[in-house]
Amino acid sequence: MRQTQTSLSSFLRLSEQIAPFIALLIGIPILVVVGFGIVSIYREGYLLALVLLITLLTFLAAIPLLFLRRQVKKRMDTQDLTSEAWVTASKNWTPFDLQVWLLLNTRIEEQLAANADWYMLRNYSLDLATLAATQYHPTRSRRELAFTIPEALRMTEEVSRRYRLLLMQHVPLVEKLNLSMVRMVYDHRDKQETLQRVWNIYRILRIFTPAGWLAEARGQLLDHVFTGLKDEVQAKLKQTLLQEVASVVIDLYSGRFKVSDEELSASETLKADQQRLAVPLEPLRVCLIGQVSAGKSSIINALLGSMVAEVNQLPSTQTATVYQAKLEPDLEAMHLVDLPGLEGKPDKDNYLLEQMLQSDVVLWVLKANQPARSLDTHFKARWQAWLDDPKQRARRQPLLLGVLNQIDRLAPQQEWQPPYDLQNPTTQKARNIRDALDYNQNLLGFQSITPLSVSEDKPPYNLEALEKLLDQCYEQGMQVQLNRRRLEASDSFSVQEQFKRAYRLGKSLFSSSRTNKTDTIK
Ligand SMILES: Nc1nc2c(ncn2[C@@H]2O[C@H](COP(=O)(O)OP(=O)(O)O)[C@@H](O)[C@H]2O)c(=O)[nH]1
Ligand SMILES: [Mg+2]
């Protein structure tokens, strides 16, 4: 990247040095021709006609330009700049990504407050990239270069694409301007050097031709569009460009550019599930975690019992049983994964952690009338430690939903007259349920906690609430799945892709050798 920058700036320097000579080279012959032309026009007596013609053409050319300018100004004035930011946080970012986004935005504000010159933006972008790199790769040296060349190319492409889209959306007539024009306007705005003087001579000269006049007028218009822009518009454009850079470097350093969307392969977990059931679906994967006898299998049975259609048990492995079912006929299918209970044994816990990582939603089942929670808190701490590892920063964690099961067994055991008003508990039972919910929620910090009873001899309690919750989680769960698939795809080396590249290379070599052969036959 640096190399490109230095070669670009040396190119610009070179062209600045050469420009006056080129202008003179073109200017002198034109001056000579113009001189001769004026003399002969004077001799032939056409001078008045010429002046009239130039004036007429000037007016004709000015009309559309004036109209255009008014249009630009009107649209610029109606731009609502106080409305929300043009660049917003991406939907599939993790909380860590969002934290970096806030940090980068603060930096952008500081940068623009310090010096908001257009020329500073390139340095600012580099600074933002370095800051993001420090967040994602705190230990790596030369961390701002912690990406591959294809990733860098995709990033460049992405910034330009997004910035262009935003400009087209928000800046009127921007599609008519190209970057060299904008640069030119800024380059020559208030420079009092040789180049400027030569430039002015050239401008005066070209005014003698209608095409030149038009070019001049366009230059003037550009000057007006950009130097006349309201300060807020300019500030907004600069901020937007930097925010675009920030948003893209987050994607870059969190590893999201490793794979393009098309390269997203199907999830390894899904493939394993599908081998057992040949249906091309990508269902929400819900796993149930909890101690032995918390009621995981009973909850799955109850959910399956009330699920209306297509209940399939996929052949179970020794440790996990996967059921496929739908909450409603027209809803997407989901996979319910029944797992062995928490036992506090490292290898079994590792297996359960792995299963949690491969899920979109985790239902953490707790037995209400059995208060020993050390297995749960210990396992939760391991899960958290695993997530806090810097290597997992690009990961979006599954939704963690607490379920307090077997509340019918809370004291007083004999009393079971649902429903209970848990917001304003009046009976002893309701108060106990409420306390147990608060206690477990404080201890384990779930996203939510749902009281439940799925006893064999009583009708289920609050099962619909759990179903509704799962339904509401669908979209967020899918984001988790997408994130997981990206990470999986970028981890696995794509043999197919490498083969395709080799094939293309082979083909081009082959075709060039064939052309050589025909050449020799001739
Ligand atoms: N009273 C009552 N018993 C339950 C409830 N849920 C499960 N059980 C019983 O608890 C025992 C263990 O349940 P199970 O689903 O096998 O637990 P797992 O080990 O977590 O899969 C079984 O005898 C179930 O009938 C409940 O909500 N109320
Ligand atoms: Mg079980």
Automatic annotation (TrEMBL):
UniProt GO cellular component terms: cytosol
GO BP terms, alphabetized: tRNA methylation; tRNA wobble uridine modification
InterPro entries registered for this protein in UniProt: GTP-bd (IPR006073), P-loop_NTPase (IPR027417)
Lineage, opening ranks: Bacteria, Pseudomonadati, Pseudomonadota, Gammaproteobacteria, Thiotrichales
GO MF term set: GTP binding
Species this protein is from: Thiothrix eikelboomii
Key words, A-Z: Membrane, Transmembrane, Transmembrane helix
Coiled coil segments of this chain: none
Domain G: 285-380
Transmembrane segments: 21-42, 48-68
Protein name: G domain-containing protein
